Amino acid sequence: MDVNGAVAAGFEPVREAFVRNFEVLGDRGAAVTVYRDGRRVVDLWGGSRDVDGGAPWERDTAQIVRSATKGVAAAVLLLLVQRGELDPDAPVGAYWPEYKAAGKERTVVRDLLAHRAGVPVLDRPLTPAEAADPELGAAAVAAQTPVWEPGTDHGYHAQTYSWLTGELVRRVTGRTIGAWIAEEIAGPVGAQLWLGLPAEQAARVGRVGQVETPAQAGALRTRPKRAVADAYADPASLTRRAFAAITPMPDENDPAYRAAALPASNGIATADGLARFYASLIGGVDGGTRLFTPETVELARGERSAGADRVLVVQTRFGLGYMLHGAASPLLSPTSFGHPGRGGALGFADPESGIAFGYVTNGFRSSVTADPRAQALVRAVRTAIVG
């Protein structure tokens, strides 16, 4: 397998793991980037740009990163808190009056970020075209009756996170969340990531698709617990209903879908863009902009939800907008915070070691929070820094 790019001395295990992902774990096309203390120490890419094609992956190839987008969206809200424009303890209805409907008047901003809002499902799912309309999506979630009392429990808001965060940002700033990310995050830190893909960037984005796990990889994976499998199979479960808040599932290769701005699911990034974003949260990148103050880092990684997740049916941990290191989503260490994308992508920062990590792929798997390819790379990073 021809792998392009470079690793700094000591990070050779990451190259070895990346090659093995193609040879054993069935990657078709992928890239991984790692920063340490704001300096790029891993920058690798290989395979084909399209999951079903032969054109080579280039250094600036970008892919849809699914729920890894949630970590970028969370940064918008936390930066608004950092700037004093948003109070995490204020009722959502103070900024978005329509949200007070159907028993949600006591929901606070922290609840949205920590997946405690109680609205992971929509009684009437939206079509892909409806979901792309931010006003329609916001109206649907504002009218939704919670399935548990907000603030009392947690469950992954797989799709509704889009309209919860997007509308709150619009009400506070007057800008769309995609524009805010472009102007206040991606631009200042030089990160190649987009929410609402501009037409001029479309040619660099590869085709994605579902890929079968090879037998060799299957032998290395832990089989899901029966309760998890049953939840995904049951159309009436919160699990199925949460992921089906948009029905049918959008075509992720459709230019119209990529041009929409769904903060829960359709951000597009290069591996370097994802890693550079996380590096900028915990320090200056190449001597440049740092986005989060130390106090905001603590908001991001301070545990707000933990235990049995009512949607994912596993033990999950969340800070404000970020998944935290744990059995369901292993990151680098207990200080790490970040977000996976279902079936592939992963981005996170680890303040203790100064590591920021980004992995993107064009081949999605059935895993939700702990893709074996991303996990192999994380373990290799850990080996590199521990020695």
TrEMBL record:
Give residue ranges for domain Beta-lactamase-related: 20-378
- Coiled-coil annotated residue ranges, if any: none
Could you read off the lineage of the organism from its UniProt record? Bacteria, Bacillati, Actinomycetota, Actinomycetes, Kitasatosporales
SUPFAM superfamilies reported for this sequence: beta-lactamase/transpeptidase-like (SSF56601)
Q: Which InterPro entries match?
A: Beta-lactam-related (IPR001466), Beta-lactam/transpept-like (IPR012338), Beta-lactamase/esterase (IPR052907)
Q: Which Pfam families match?
A: Beta-lactamase (PF00144)
What this protein is called in its record is Esterase
